[in-house]
Amino acid sequence: MTSNNTNFLLGLTTGIALCSAAFTVYAATVINNVVKDNNNFQTITATAAISSTAINDSTPSPETLERLSSMFAINSDKLNQIVRHFVSEMKKGLNSDKSGLLMIPSHVVNLPNGKEHGSFLALDLGGTNFRVCEVLLDGHSGARVRQSKHTVTDEQKALPGDQLFDFFAQCVTNFLIEGLASPITNPLAEIAKRHWRLGFTFSFATNQVAIAEGYLILWNKGFSNSGVIGANVVQLLEAALKRAGLASITVTALVNDTTGTLVSHAYVQPSTRVGVILGTGTNCAYVEKIENITKYKNVDPNVKEMLVNTEWGAFDDEQVIVPRNKYDVNVDRSMNGMGKYTFEKLISGMYLGEIVRFVLVDLVKTGEIFSAGASPELKMPHSFETAFMSRIERDHTLDLSDTRTVLENMLKISRTTLADRRLVKSLCELVGKRSARLSAAGIAAVVTKMNKLDGCTVGIDGSLFELYPHYSNRMRDALREILGLSAEYIVLEQARDGSGQGAALIAALAEK
Ligand code: GLC
Q1: How far apart are CA 399 and CA 279, in angstroms?
Q2: What is the distance of C-alpha 110 from the center of its chain?
Q3: How many CB atoms within 10 Å of residue 394?
Q4: Marked catalytic residue, from 257, 332, 399, 497
Q5: Is 37 part of the annotated catalytic residue set?
Q6: CA angle 477, 482, 488 (to 5 degrees)
Q7: Could you tell me the CA-to-CA distances from 438 to 75, 86, 446, 474, 479 in Å, in that order?
Q8: Is 203 noted as a catalytic residue in this protein?
Q9: CA gyration radius for the chain?
Q10: Does 99 map to a domain?
Q11: What sequence ranges are listed for the domain Hexokinase N-terminal (predicted)?
Q12: Domain residues for 244?
């Protein structure tokens, strides 16, 4: 994929060596503080706090590390409990709409066989970007893609819905004009000569009632455009295209990024049965037997299987099984949609950096990190990007110099010790590892529910899986803890551009 990635594109380790003199100066400052405070009541609190700070300038306090670890670690037993609960929530969701898991029938009933061909338009609204693609399926499991990519700003995420869709239509117009062979006096008339089929990847919880009809259930990932919840998003898109003079485009498929990922990975790897997104948001789709989707009526007797969009981001919104700490609660409270998509808020790229930031601000208050205090930058919501975590986890320099660049140059913390930087790195590890383990628990549950422990491929797209250091290894470790030997038969593979190519393929399959 996809548009979800760019937020977390990660820099390579750069940085400069720390000068040892700086350590000496810093140590002296800490000692001074302790002595100065030693005469009044505040000293007692300060001493208590300082007693749990770094034991020296290079080693973080073991108590602090232990406390954080107990807040973020999820052991094998807990993972197994989560998996059991997950499977039972999946079953409930397939029977009725009264479960945390929405289990949305996607109306995609075929997987590609590689022979699909033709030219399709695909639109992709993920979390961070909007893309327009022209996808040429060659009929031999191959595709060529021409695309334009546009950032969706925070302002656009709050526009009235019609204006957001007008922006999409404008991007499509520009894209099609750019694609014309030579400048033409009336480009719209030229474009209108051709009938375009379009797959729309709309990566939000949508009640899909037909392959090209779906009603938005709720916004997440920072979107709040009015007039879209409850509306048929295909109709909104077609109306905007019409307003832009593009009535020759028909939206023939509405697609979630997870179903797009599953289908596009199956195009190249036929054993694929599960599609997962680990990016700005997180979610999973899989192949379910139609007889198990008991809430789905009007079944065509020829249909044996259907892709189901789990919307696993909303797993355990009742908060009965997944452990959550005060920082998770803070992040949930500070975002739109409090109490909703709480599983996603522990896992995906939009939230991980913010969890780390809340912890750091707290550690500054208790005197356990950054003796110079928190910078205004660190206090600013979302200033600690998930990309910083990636960069810090990738920092293997002796003095964690790249971590220092992030903290001192980008977040403007005036002084950090090696102990501070090690503490930040351990914290990133804890938060990153928990995310990987929880997503592995989701996959273990889906594969268990499908009865596919004897083997299947999971196509995974998104920046966390692709770019976050150790993420896939941590997932594999957790899968082994949960599934034992069977984990070896579950192949986790990087999928690419499910949202573009997948939408085109689903549009092609819809015509079969
Ligand atoms: C959010 C959306 C879901 C999407 C996921 C990944 O969880 O609700 O539909 O698949 O993000 O983009």
Answers
A1: 30
A2: 26
A3: 17
A4: 257
A5: no
A6: 60
A7: 11, 11, 13, 10, 10
A8: yes
A9: 25
A10: no
A11: 65-267
A12: 105-269+496-509
| CA–CA distances in Å: residue 115 to residues 126, 439, 451, 495 | 27, 33, 28, 19
CATH of the domain at 147: 3.30.420.40
- Cα–Cα distance for residue pair 452/276, rounded to 1 Å: 16
Tens-digit pLDDT profile for residues 36-45: 233 232 323 3
**Nearest alpha-carbon partner for 280 in 345, 215, 206:** 345
Does residue 225 lie in a domain region?
yes
Catalytic residue among 3, 106, 124, 131: 131
CB of 311 within 6 A of ligand 1: the answer is: yes
The predicted structure's pLDDT at residue 512: 72
Residue of 3, 99, 106, 203 with catalytic role:
203
Nearest to residue 294, comparing CAs of 92, 142, 499, 26? 92
Spatial neighbors of 398 by CB under 8 A, at least 6 apart, are: none
Q: What is the number of the ligand 1 atom nearest to the C-alpha of 312?
A: 7
Residues 256 and 226: their CA atoms lie apart, in Å, by 21
Would 189 be classed as within a structural domain? yes
Ligand 1: centre distance to CA 143 (Å): 25
Distance CA 60, CA 78 (A): 28
Q: For ligand 1, is residue 220 a contact (CB within 6 Å)?
A: yes
The amino acid sitting at 480 is R
Instruction: Compute the distance from residue 292 Cα to the ligand 1 centre, in Å.
Output: 23
Contact 481, 93 (CB under 8 A): no
How far is 256 from 245, CA to CA, in rounded Å? 26
Rounded to 5 degrees, what are φ and ψ at 145?
-130, 130
**3-state DSSP helix/strand/coil % of the chain, to nearest 5:** 45, 15, 35
For residue 36, the tally of other CB atoms under 10 A from its CB is 10
Where the chain has pLDDT below 50, the residues are 1-51
For 306-331, the DSSP string reads EEEE--GGGTTTT-SSS---HHHHHH
Q: How far is the CA of 344 from the centre of ligand 1 (A)?
A: 9
Is residue 310 in a domain?
A: no
Q: Which helix (H) or strand (E) holds 25?
A: helix 20-36
- Reported as half-sphere exposure (CB side, CA atoms, 13 A), residue 34 has a value of 13
Spatial distance between the Cα atoms of 82 and 77, rounded to a whole number of angstroms: 9
Domain count, the chain: 1
Residue among 102, 423, 453 at smallest CA distance from 274: 453
In this prediction, residue 258 carries a pLDDT of: 98
Catalytic annotation on 415? no
